[in-house]
Amino acid sequence: MFVVSMALVAAAWEAYKKWGPQDGGEVLGWKILPRAKDRVMPHISDIFSRFTDPLNRASDETVLEVVLKGVWFSFRLVLAGFGMGLVAGMLLAIVMTRFRFAERAVLPYLVVSQTVPLIALAPLVASWGGKLELFGWEWPRWMSSAVLGAFLTFFPIAVGTLRGLQSPTAASLELMDSLAAPWRRTLVTLRFPAAVPYIVPALKLGAAGAVIGVVVSEISTGLRGGIGRLVIEFSQKTTGDPAIVYTAVLGAAFLGLVLAGMVAIADAVFMRNRPKEVDA
Amino acid sequence: MRNQRIKGIAATLLAVSLIAACGDDDKKDEGAKPADCETTTPVKLQLQWVTQAQFAGYYSAVEQGFYAAQCLDVEILEGAVDITPQTVLANGDADFAISWVPKALASREAGADIINIAQVFQRSGTLQVSFKDSGITSPADFAGRKIGNWGYGNEFEVFAAMTKAGIDPADVDNVAQQFDMVGLLEGDIDAAEAMTYNEYAQVLEAVNPATGELYTPEEFNVISYEEEGVGMLQDAIWADGARLASDAAYKDTAIKFVAASLQGWAYCRDKVDACATLVTNQGSALGLTHQTWQMNEINKLIWPAADGVGYIQPESWDRTVQLAQETKNLEGTTVLTADPDELAYTNEIIVAAHALLEDLGVNIKGDGYKPIDVTLTEGGA
After folding, report:
1. What is the 3-state secondary structure (H, E, C) of B25-67?
2. Span B135-150, pLDDT tens digits
3. Which residue of B has its CA nearest to A60?
């Protein structure tokens, strides 16, 4: 199905190029229709043929190799960021479930944290690189990007998990109480399994957030090696070589798809014993 | 049972992510340490943008061992979209920074204690480029036209030229310009801001759909702000003012750093191709012919240097400062509100650095410098 939909997108792109306005167009006086010229919308075939070209004359690497290396570099940062965000989000959710006052005290801060623009934080966090030392372990530059990925990941996971942990009915909780189950036991046997349907969509949001956080912070701080850096570098070439920037964009999209695929697998694993249809 | 398995999977995921995270170790070049250095001083240099020939002098000084010969271990920090070099310097995250003078002075007026210790680029490389048929041949023609500028402090010369031509910037259709030249080629902008060494080359690397060939210089009108008399000083090496005044070791490092950097620039003056290849191999995605063009154009901004490379000429400095105070932007404010104090620049470091370079036999004036001819290719490959 995915292949079919990709083909449809490609066909729509080429159709717009063929029949769309070459110099852009207006709808109700708003200039919103993009130009269909080759300089603005290169042919799909041009974009893909760029992948096999060498990066430049001084390089024996092809654009595809460079983009894949960038994807691999960013992928590891995304995983690190996602992992950190997952742990932080889960812990926060557990603390907020355990102590109602913690929920009331902390939740507003979590919401506020997400309104801070990422590009304002990025240079700040990036400057930790090579400067901060924790217990003799020097903070590497890439860690800053991973942290910004985690920054966007932990919020949906914390909120989703919190909602999930609070989802068991009063009757279920009272049953656990009547059995004198300690809080930890309730968490593991009742609350956590009940939270899984809430956690899985939160993971999807978190994964998307991790990709955005890492790629945007790479663009913002110029971290060398990742797909975000390639986006800036290739966009500088766009005047003479409009197709090349799309290779980096496709690389970033591919990275997002890989992450989404991983979450889908996790989804299938965690949810396999659940009834497919849930009563309303 | 299921909980056990979930725990196992979660632990595995976590472990994988940690391993992946730890797998990437930064490999640092130790560099050749000459035997006569008792210790090497680590130095961080913050650039304004990613690796390109605009900074070739510093890269070649690393590669050729000029810094190492001065017992310095220089780490070059690249710039990016949200990195402001003078802020990084003022925050102590770098020991030296490269910045344009007006921008740095604006930061200085806002409280950043930084000082210009070497004016590497003696001339401004800013152009305003338009198609011949637009009829824009001087800033006086800007009125009522779509004039591109980059903002972020890169637009001061554009507004200075308007002010000098007697045009109110409000009478000009000022267009925020991207860092590519598509806007000019597609007619969104009548005259686009361009650096001789970068964006102008990008235009000449693009194919004219009407002819199927690359655009040629004959198809454009080029206004040079340097020739218009509104050129402002650009790439300079900035140091931390307080440290320079109080820390003798830092001052000594500054002299050595400036000397070795200028030695790098002298090397790139004589070895254009080697330096272009060097920055391309340092991971610039821009192509080799583009970097060769850029290296050649950068050399033109540095050489010849009548008072020795890096010397801050009071007249250029005063002109920059004066323009920064006279030029009103759209909001009616100026870049600077008052003259910077005398601690904004010093030639003390550069004079000491020149002495070191003369001992090494480096030609610091670049007498007889001749630019080379570079033929651009499509996309700058």
Report:
1. CCCCCCCCCCCCCCCCEEEEEECCCCCCHHHHHHHHHHHCCHH
2. 999 999 999 999 999 8
3. B281
Chain B residues with CB under 8 Å of A76 CB are 20-21, 23-24
Same domain, B153 and B215: yes
- B293 in helix, strand or coil? helix
B23 chain-A contacts, CB cut-off 8 A: 76
> pLDDT digits over B329-375, tens only?
777 788 888 888 889 999 999 999 999 999 999 999 998 899 999 99
Give domain A64-270's CATH architecture.
Orthogonal Bundle (1.10)
CA distances B360 to B215, B259, B262, Å, are 44, 10, 12
Of A21-25, A31-35, B262-266, the range with the highest mean pLDDT is B262-266
> For the packed helices B2-22 and A244-270, what is the interaxial angle rounded to 10 degrees?
150
CB neighbours of B291 closer than 8 A, spacing ≥ 6? B52, B53, B276, B277, B279, B280, B284, B380
pLDDT band for A131, please (50, 70, 90 cuts).
low
Single residue among B190, B224, B258 that ends a domain in this structure: B224
Nearest alpha-carbon partner for B327 in B337, B317, B339: B337
Contact B76, B85 (CB under 8 A): no
pLDDT surpasses 80 at B188? yes
Q: Which two tokens stand for residue B302?
A: 């540095």
**Are the C-beta atoms of residues A89 and A207 closer than 8 Å to each other?**
no
Domain range for B135 is 126-224
Angle formed at CA B304 by CA B300 and CA B307, multiple of 5 degrees: 135
How close, in Å, is residue A77 to chain B by CA atoms?
6
Rounded CA-CA distance B201/A229 in Å is 22
For B286, name the nearest residue in chain A, comparing CA atoms only. Answer: A237
Q: Are residues B51 and B114 in the same domain?
A: yes
- Across the strands, what pairs with B222? B129
Comparing CB atoms, the residue among B21, B281, B286 nearest residue A80 is B21
Bridge-based pairing of strands B126-131 and B191-195 is antiparallel
C-alpha span between B278 and B265 (Å, rounded)? 13
Does residue B16 lie within any of the structural domains?
no
- CA of A79: which chain B residue's CA is closest? B17
Looking at residue B239, its pLDDT comes to: 97
| B9-32 pLDDT tens trace | 444 444 444 444 443 343 334 444
Note whether residue B20 is domain-resident.
no
CB pairs under 8 A between A and B: 155
**Same domain assignment for residues B150 and B201:** yes
With CB atoms and an 8 Å threshold, state whether B205 touches A239: yes
Number of Cβ atoms within 10 Å of the Cβ of B199: 24
User: Given this model, what pLDDT does residue A15 score?
Assistant: 86
